[in-house]
Amino acid sequence: MWRLLEPLRAEDREAFLALAHPRTFARNEILCHEGDPADSLHLVERGHLAVSGTLASGAAATFTVLSPGDYFGELALLRTDRRRTATVTALEQSRTLAVAVTAFDRLCEHNPGIERVVSTLLADRIDLLSRRLLETMYESLDHRVCRRLLDLADAYGGGDGAVVIPLSQAQLADLVGATRPPVNQVLQRLADRDVVRLSRSRIEVLDRAELRRLSP
């Protein structure tokens, strides 16, 4: 279930989803570029997507990773210029349900409460980004790496068992606001304690309880 659709009646939700078109994307395929015209809202049905942005200097940063049940594109559809505010890339083979801008407009027109829901969810995202910024400014890199690993473990697998995160160390470094070499040092220390296992383009979380202890 997508939080965006929770306030709708069951019949309205079904009617809205009936207008959606399934889209599949290969690993590393870009769904949209920052600045592209926004013509649809995407509901993530399968896979994981990285959301990133660029600075005027050309430097790029990954904000978050989307999982099934997440969505993107609603902010661009509410902007007057209707331009994408971030680049979204499939981290693995993924599938979304794309809802055209005209259908989204009708949804808001017939369900005025949806805009209030969107505003609340946007506020949640802004709060998350603000907390990430504060973490980058004031928290140690060790704490940030442990927290992002916990977030990713939740996104890629439920429960407390071992879970494979199919991301490279460079991608994890983007998420914590650092470069690869110091992040690699943190990961090596965790691997020495059997908290994680490292291999090419993947990180296996072995001990979430220890990660929680290390990221108060």
> How many whole angstroms does the radius of gyration measure?
18 Å
Terminal CA distance: 30 Å
Strand proportion, as a percent range, falls in 15-25%
Query: What summary fits the major beta sheet?
Result: 4 strands, antiparallel
pLDDT < 50 stretches = none
Order of helices and strands: HEEEEEEHEEHHHEHHEEH
**Helix amount:** 40-55%
Walk me through the structure.
The chain is an alpha+beta fold and 216 residues long. It is 44% helix and 24% strand. It is built from 8 helices and 11 strands. It has helices spanning 10-18, 74-78, 101-110, 113-138, 141-156, 169-176, 180-192, 208-214; strands at 21-25, 30-32, 40-46, 49-54, 60-66, 71-72, 87-90, 94-100, 163-165, 196-199, 202-205. The strands form 3 sheets. Strands 1-8-3-6 form a 4-stranded antiparallel sheet.
Briefly summarize what is shown:
This protein has 216 residues and is α+β, with helices and mostly antiparallel strands. Helix content is 44%, strand content 24%.
List the helices and strands and how they pair.
Elements: H1 10-18, E1 21-25, E2 30-32, E3 40-46, E4 49-54, E5 60-66, E6 71-72, H2 74-78, E7 87-90, E8 94-100, H3 101-110, H4 113-138, H5 141-156, E9 163-165, H6 169-176, H7 180-192, E10 196-199, E11 202-205, H8 208-214
Antiparallel strand pairs: 1-8, 2-7, 3-6, 3-8, 4-5, 4-7, 9-11, 10-11
Helix pairs in contact: 5-6, 5-8
Features:
216 residues; four-stranded antiparallel β-sheet; globular
